[in-house]
Amino acid sequence: MSYSEPPPPPPQYGAPQPPMGGGPQNHPRGTLILILGILSIPCCGLFTGIPAIILGRSTLAEIDANPAAYGNRGMVNAGYICGIIGTVLSVIGIIANILLRM
């Protein structure tokens, strides 16, 4: 090693950075809607299913208005559908409970 050459660059650590201006981003409410929708099926359908339906409907409208900006339409749609299923099952359970007590 001579004093006239510059030292080598330090090694690179970590994952490589994605290119600037990448693909569509996920909608910020997508994960919340999916969690609420999934929880509405086994747990408390009316308390988590109705918010999943309301938030899912408005988020799907936002994604439809700007489809190039968001890439998680499937996640939002799955949470929305699970919210509907959980709410319907809760209503059926409430009706069956009322009828069995008569």
From TrEMBL:
Compositional bias ranges of the Pro residues kind: 1-21
Chain ranges of the DUF4190 domain: 34-92
Q: Which InterPro entries match?
A: DUF4190
Query: Does the keyword Cell cycle feature in the UniProt annotation?
Result: no
Q: Give the record's keywords alphabetically.
A: Membrane, Transmembrane, Transmembrane helix
TM ranges are 32-55, 75-100
Annotated Pfam families:
DUF4190 (PF13828)
Region: Disordered; residue ranges are 1-26
The name this protein goes by in its record: DUF4190 domain-containing protein
Q: Which organism is it from?
A: Nocardioides caricicola
